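Troubleshooting: if your tokenizer reports a length mismatch, compare your output against this known-good record of 243 residues.
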Amino acid sequence: MAAAEREDELERKSITEKARLRLREFDVGDKFSHLPLPKASVLLPLMVREGQLHLLLTVRSMQLRRSPGEVCFPGGKSEATDKDEIDTALREAKEEVGLQPDKVEVICRLVPGIDKMNHLVTPVVGFIEDTFQAIPNPDEVSDVFVMPLEYFVKPLNYKTLPYKTSSGYLSWMHCFTYDDHKHKMSFKIWGLTAHFAVLLALVIFGKRPTFEVDYDLDNLMSSSENKFMDLYASLYERKKSNL
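Known-good structure output:
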């Protein structure tokens, strides 16, 4: 038994170390922090379970005014006391699911996104223990679940949804349906949450997904940054034209 446990621990260390190295290559740090948009952050909590990387997600409480019942990462708007985007993500994760900041090994910040309220949303990636037991804050979170990260490059149930960007352009977004057989529940992951999960999976696995993505996969870092800056520029142009 002890030998099997040692083997599991070695496998876990190997998986996390490979992921760490890949993620550090894609760390944008505070490169986009200066942009004049209201700030928000989300935590993308990774863990190793059954020899695979898994991602923790939450379901927003039905009591919330904005996006009730939708799947998202722990996170929210920046507050004056937050030092940076990492602080925001860790504070929100503690408030929403009881995850203590000192139990998160923060690895990097990935290229941000812009939500429908025009917040600059920074995804912060960190490792947590696979034994973590979430304590959802019922005012904000109705459910917490864990799913394999690889689902975001090799999904069983995937489609695209058309939508209008905040700058008025017609585009499309990823939409995944994940059946959690253990808990006999089905979850729909789409929008910015799916966007960040796909980017994270592409960064870590470095392989082509089974669906179309609008990145140059041979130059993922510059391609994801350029895509974001195009989105930001189109939003800025629209703001200017509305003045």
